[in-house]
Each structure stands twice: as structure tokens, then as C-alpha cells.
């Protein structure tokens, strides 16, 4: 299969000329998963994304396929059962991406701690049963204070009671998106990035029947006709619905910003992912995760009202995280200048899904004080000085004994919603990466129902729980063995062991196709052989259109290989310019785009290191 700039031109021609069964707006994980299921089920499928695939939100997560252990504090068994079971499905269909990486959870003797040692053990035992790992090598266990400190000597010993260790999975979020996109394209889907929706089309009956879109590479505007239009734009869900002049809907999204910071592991060393209370009694927990030769930590959870396409790390985000990390790891003494890279992303939370979903709800009588709060907030809303969700917070606080659990964005449910508006526009929103396949399943099932009911078209939904993404044709029970075999094949072809393992872990069962490029690609001066192959594969088979696409989302070079980034930027740009025959103007545009992304990741403005 070829999934390249040339394929993009072919797909755009199809989108111009044919009527799709479904047009999916949004190329994050939910849109990508929906496109895979629709294409594999035989639907004539198109997907448009105004940025690069995964650029908006799905490359900016904590990079885990998380099991949700903390929800067992309140015995939310159903929530955790669904999460760990779906996590196992994702590991089965994309075995080269989520990798088992047991998590350590230290417990401190502090007010409002999420767990005591006793409650943690009870929760972990139940978690193991739900995950089906009881009695296996991945079964949980506890550590004494001394054992915790032996494993993580930088961890603060004051008040430390011990820890639990339980199964979790690390993830490569952007890779999971592109592998879904590639499989959808392989199955006949027309997947186009940098294509911005500017209007929703309607037929003579007022039904949503496609979209008007602008090609951000050429400036051309085209009309795409489709029987069903699906909105999977995450934080932009309200934007698309408000663009639809045939419906009148209240905003439902409440995006929150999450920030992660990366330091060298010589500065902060953790042998495995670590997860603990912030110690601030704010209901939040923080991850500290080793990756490559780096350690990253996060996340924050703060309401966000800025530019959805460009959330940034601010000083207060850094201050918050460094305070927590330096309290938990006092000898690390991390400062702003130790931060090598960073990222900020938005969570597509739904405002109506309050903390009561996971944290319980206690009704109470309305007090005079509560009534005053309601009258005041409504007046402010009418004056336009507060947002709708802030009114909702006050109303929820009337009903709950624990106001903090409802107003703190970090406790909002990550629940999803599927809405079909009166003109037929389908919007699937909310959720989290672990649940993406189930969200997509519901959206595509709704699409197929509409096609049968209104267009007399019948499709059989594939069993997506057993349908591998691109690169996923690996036995989930033998991932390590098959990955090592792929790596050894690369060594035999002249790659070093580290290069071959890097490629095998990145591309899974597509690794032989990467190796095949050895026959036609010369090593680029300034790049390793592995990076040369990876770059060409990204351009030819993964729709990497810009240097940022390659260095940020097809690989994690900018985030976790910052040491070598500066030395490969020029060779990457030069090779992409040569291969794609860029003009000087285009080359300069993409160079400046990358420079801006690197500067933001480096926190140059906060460090005062600006030109």
C-alpha cells in the first residue's frame, strides 16, 4: 500500500466526485478508529482532518493505556471492568503499541490519601480479577517502605508507608492513531489530513449530507457529499455542531488542559511507571514515567478557554508539577532549566458528566446559601461573564455533599456520548484513548443503522475486537519473541541491534516493509540508517507531509530524543524537500513551523531563551 502525498491527491479526487456512505470529521483516535471500522465493514468512507492526524489531542496524552485503578477506591467495578477488558482488546489488535509496564503506587500517610495500604491491596486484588491476571506474572504485589526506597531511592521517605505494584500499559498515542488510519486507507478509506471543514452541507430535506472543506495545502475549497456525517473532533465537537445551521444545540464540551514535562533520567530516575497522590489534598494523582533515557511527569487538569489548536505550557503549570515532583523526589531538585521538552494537550471532557459518575453522589436539601449561589451565578451567566459549565458546577454543588468532587476538573468523568442531531449529524465525543474502539463501534453501528433505514443499504459490522490495525499482525501472546525476530532480521540486513530493535518496536509487522527500503534508499548524510528508513517510510506509507509530522508524531524524536534532535533537523528537512520537490518558500514555511514547535516544547519563552 502507498499512503503518501500522491495518494492524498487521488483521495481528494474521489471525495470531489463520489458520494460517500460516511464522512468522518476529525482524525484523532476516535475518528481513526471509526474510519477503520467503517472501511473494513465495506462503507465508502472518507475522513478529513484540519491538522496532521493525531495532532490536536491524540498525540498529547499521558501515553498510557490506563486501567483506572483509582476508581476502585469507591468500588466502581463496572467502570474498571470495562476499561481493563477494553485495554486487553486494544493490546490484541495493536500488540506492537501498548506494552505491559507494571505501575508502582507509593502510599503516604497523608490527609485525604486515595489509598491506605489495606485499601490499595483490596483494590489491586479486585483489579487483577477484572483484568484476568490473577496468578500470572503480572499479578499485583505490595512493597514495604524499605523495598520501595531500594527500588526508588530518590523517593521521599517521610510518611511513606509502602507501595503496591500492578499491571498497566505504556502507549504510543500518535502511533496508535496512524496505524488505525493506515488500516482504514488499506481497506479503501479516503483519509486526508490538512483538510479543514468550513461548512456542513444539507440536502433538500435539511439532512446533513456532507461538508464544504478547504485544502490547507492548496487553498482549494471543495464539496464532499455523504449520506451520513460523523463528528469526531474531540474538543472541537461544539465548533462543528455550531457550524451546522440546521440545528440549535447548547455547548456540551468542557475541555481541560493537561501538561507533561520531560527531564533526563540522570536527573530523575524511576525504574518503572510511578503513580501517586499530589500531596496537595486536591484530589489529583500524578504519573512519573521512564521512557527511552528520559523521565516525564504529569498531568495537570485545569479548565481551558484558549485556542483549541494551540494549548501551551504556562509558568503556573510548571510550578505546580515541579512543586509536586520536588516534594516527592527532594534530591532531584528539578528546575525549569532541567526540562528538556514538554507537551500540553486538551481532554475532551463533557460538562454534563460530573464527578458523580465515579465518585458517588449524595443529595441534600437546598440551603439559603446554595440558593444565593444559584441566583448569583445565573445573573452572571446572563451578563456573559461566566460560562455555561460554571453554572452547571453550582447546580451540581447543591446536590452533593462533597463539592470538591464535582467542581475539580480532574474528577470529571471521562465518559463518552453519542448524539444524533435532528438533521442526522452524528457526534461522538468525550471518552479516553483506552475506550476508543468501543466509542468507534457505537458510532459506526449508528451509521450502519441509518444507511439501512434511510438509504436501503446493508452492511455487516466487522468484529473490530479481532481486527488488527496496521502493523498489528503479531501474536499478542508472543510480542517479545516476534519483535526480537523482526529486529534480528534487521541486523542481518546491516542495521545495528539498537537500530533494528527501535524499528521493530515502532512498526510491528510492517517492519519488513521498512527494511525493503534498503534496496532503494541511500543513507542520508547526517541521519542514521534507521532514521533514514523511518523518514522514507513515513513519507511513503504514513502521510508524513512536514518535518513536524515526522519528528513529533510518526516518531517521538522531539519529546524523548531531544539530545540528538538539533543534529537531525537539517538533514530531515533537506531530504523531505528533495523527495517532495519543495520550493524554497514551502521549505521555509515548514522549517519555521518546526522551529516554533521545538521552541514551545523547549519552553524557551519561560526560560527567557528567545531570539
TrEMBL record:
Domain Alpha-glycerophosphate oxidase C-terminal, by residue range, is: 465-585
Which keywords does the record carry?
Answer: FAD, Flavoprotein, Glycerol metabolism, Oxidoreductase
Q: What is its EC number?
A: 1.1.3.21
Native source organism of the sequence = Alkalibacterium indicireducens
Reactions mediated catalytically: sn-glycerol 3-phosphate + O2 = dihydroxyacetone phosphate + H2O2
**Is Flavoprotein one of the keywords?**
yes
Co-factor(s): FAD
Could you read off the lineage of the organism from its UniProt record? Bacteria, Bacillati, Bacillota, Bacilli, Lactobacillales
Does this entry carry the keyword Iron?
no
Q: Specify the enzyme's EC class, one word.
A: oxidoreductase
Full protein name: Alpha-glycerophosphate oxidase
Q: What's this protein's family per the entry?
A: Belongs to the FAD-dependent glycerol-3-phosphate dehydrogenase family.
- Give the highest taxon in the source lineage: Bacteria
Fetch the Pfam families from UniProt. DAO, DAO_C
**Which part of the chain is the FAD dependent oxidoreductase domain?**
21-353
Amino acid at each position: 500500500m502507498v499512503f503518501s502525498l500522491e495518494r492524498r491527491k487521488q483521495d481528494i479526487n474521489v471525495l470531489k466526485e463520489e458520494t460517500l456512505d460516511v464522512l468522518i470529521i476529525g482524525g484523532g483516535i476516535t475518528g481513526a478508529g471509526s474510519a477503520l471500522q467503517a472501511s473494513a465493514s465495506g462503507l465508502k468512507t472518507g475522513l478529513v482532518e484540519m491538522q496532521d492526524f493525531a495532532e490536536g489531542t491524540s498525540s498529547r496524552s499521558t501515553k498510557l493505556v490506563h486501567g483506572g485503578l483509582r476508581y476502585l477506591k469507591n468500588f466502581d467495578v463496572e467502570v474498571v471492568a470495562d476499561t481493563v477488558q477494553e485495554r486487553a482488546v486494544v493490546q490484541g489488535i495493536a500488540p506492537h503499541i501498548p506494552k505491559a509496564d507494571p505501575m508502582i503506587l507509593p502510599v503516604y500517610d497523608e490527609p485525604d490519601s486515595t489509598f491506605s495500604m489495606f485499601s490499595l491491596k483490596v483494590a489491586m486484588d479486585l483489579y487483577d480479577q477484572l483484568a484476568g491476571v490473577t496468578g500470572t506474572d503480572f499479578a499485583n504485589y505490595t512493597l514495604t517502605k524499605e523495598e520501595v526506597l531500594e527500588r526508588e531511592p530518590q523517593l521521599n521517605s517521610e510518611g511513606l508507608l509502602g507501595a503496591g505494584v500492578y499491571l498497566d500499559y505504556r502507549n504510543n498515542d500518535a502511533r496508535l492513531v496512524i496505524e488505525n488510519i493506515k488500516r482504514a486507507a488499506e481497506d479503501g478509506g479516503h483519509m486526508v489530513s490538512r483538510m479543514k471543514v468550513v461548512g456542513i452541507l444539507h440536502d433538500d430535506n435539511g439532512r446533513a449530507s456532507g461538508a464544504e472543506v478547504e485544502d490547507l495545502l492548496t487553498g482549494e475549497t471543495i464539496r464532499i457529499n455523504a449520506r451520513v456525517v460523523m463528528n469526531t473532533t474531540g474538543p472541537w465537537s461544539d465548533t462543528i455542531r455550531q457550524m451546522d445551521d440546521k440545528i440549535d444545540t447548547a455547548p456540551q464540551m468542557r475541555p481541560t488542559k493537561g501538561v507533561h514535562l520531560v527531564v533526563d533520567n540522570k536527573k530523575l530516575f524511576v525504574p518503572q511507571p510511578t503513580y501517586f497522590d499530589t500531596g496537595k489534598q486536591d484530589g489529583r494523582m500524578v504519573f512519573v514515567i521512564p521512557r527511552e533515557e528520559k523521565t516525564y511527569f504529569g498531568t495537570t487538569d485545569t479548565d481551558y478557554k484558549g485556542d483549541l489548536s494551540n494549548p501551551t505550557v504556562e509558568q503556573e503549570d510548571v510550578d505546580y508539577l515541579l512543586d509536586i515532583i520536588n516534594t516527592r523526589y527532594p534530591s532531584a531538585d528539578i528546575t525549569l532549566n532541567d526540562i528538556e521538552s514538554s507537551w500540553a494537550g486538551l481532554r475532551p471532557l463533557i460538562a454534563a458528566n460530573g464527578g458523580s459518575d465515579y465518585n458517588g453522589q449524595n443529595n441534600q436539601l437546598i440551603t439559603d446559601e446554595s440558593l444565593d449561589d444559584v441566583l448569583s451565578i445565573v445573573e452572571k451567566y446572563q451578563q456573559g461573564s461566566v460560562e455555561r459549565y460554571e453554572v452547571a458546577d453550582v447546580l451540581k454543588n447543591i446536590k452533593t455533599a462533597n463539592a470538591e468532587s464535582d467542581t475539580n476538573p480532574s474528577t470529571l468523568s471521562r465518559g463518552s456520548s453519542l448524539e444524533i442531531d435532528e438533521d442526522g449529524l452524528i457526534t461522538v465525543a468525550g471518552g479516553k484513548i483506552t475506550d476508543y474502539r468501543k466509542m468507534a463501534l457505537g458510532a459506526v453501528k449508528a451509521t450502519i443503522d441509518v444507511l439501512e433505514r434511510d438509504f436501503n443499504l446493508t452492511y455487516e459490522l466487522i468484529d473490530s475486537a479481532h481486527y488488527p490495525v496496521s502493523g498489528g499482525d503479531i501474536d499478542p501472546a508472543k510480542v517479545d519473541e516476534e519483535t526480537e525476530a523482526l529486529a534480528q532480521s534487521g541486523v542481518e540486513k546491516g542495521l545495528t541491534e539498537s537500530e533494528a530493535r527501535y524499528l521493530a518496536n515502532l512498526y510491528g509487522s510492517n517492519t519488513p516493509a521498512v527494511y525493503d527500503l534498503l534496496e532503494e534508499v541511500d543513507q542520508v548524510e547526517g541521519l542514521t540508517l534507521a532514521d533514514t528508513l523511518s523518514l522514507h517510510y513515513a513519507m511513503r506509507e504514513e502521510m508524513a507531509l512536514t518535518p513536524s509530522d515526522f519528528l513529533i508524531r510518526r516518531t517521538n524524536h522531539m519529546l524523548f530524543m531531544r539530545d540528538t534532535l538539533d543534529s537531525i533537523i537539517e538533514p530531515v528537512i533537506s531530504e523531505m524537500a528533495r523527495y517532495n520537490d519543495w520550493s524554497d518558500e514551502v521549505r521555509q514555511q515548514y522549517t519555521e513551523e518546526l522551529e516554533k514547535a521545538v521552541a514551545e516544547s523547549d519552553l524557551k519563552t519561560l526560560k527567557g531563551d528567545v531570539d
